[in-house]
Amino acid sequence: MDNEKILDAFTALSQATRLETFRVLVRFEPEGLPAGEIARLLGVPHNTMSTHLGVLSRAGLVSSRRQSRSIIYRANLDHMRETLSFLVHDCCAGRAELCEPLLRELQHPAADCNREAGENLCNGEDVS
Q1: What is the pTM of this model?
Q2: What pLDDT tens digit does each residue of the chain (128 aa) get?
């Protein structure tokens, strides 16, 4: 993965609404959500959400597909995985001991996230 793709991903996620949009889409994997539902969950006007989804899409962080009259958006977890992997390997510069704590944490994520309840209990935010 090249620096330009990394910069595109982090530039897209550096805006609060886009970061929250990506987080919501991750929670609703693999089904995805229509743009209108994402806008409703985050309390964002539909046209504004469309702009944010376009930025995330161009950065490779979300994908979309048409389903009847709706466009369903999904988080592109492979792209995020590649981005994070690039950072971990590049930043650790071949010194695995520097990344051990991070890798352990990633292998044992917080167990108290509850998507079905409509809450992200990892940070206490309600997304319903």
Answers
A1: 0.76
A2: 788 999 999 999 999 999 999 999 999 999 999 999 999 999 999 999 999 999 999 999 999 999 999 999 999 999 998 888 887 777 677 676 777 777 777 777 655 444 444 444 344 444 44
Query: Collapsing DSSP states into helix, strand and coil, what is residue 18?
Result: helix
107 exposed, middle or buried (CB, 10 Å; 0-12, 13-18, 19+)? exposed
Is residue 42 in a domain? yes
Range of the domain at 62: 3-121
User: Phi, psi (5° rounding) for residue 74?
Assistant: -135, 150
CATH number of the domain bearing residue 95:
1.10.10.10
78 backbone dihedrals φ, ψ, rounded to 5°:
-65, -40
* DSSP per position, 46-109: HHHHHHHHHHHHHTTSEEEEEETTEEEEEE-HHHHHHHHHHHHHHHHTT-HHHHHHHHHHHHS-
Q: Is 28 helix (H, G, I), strand (E, B) or coil?
A: coil
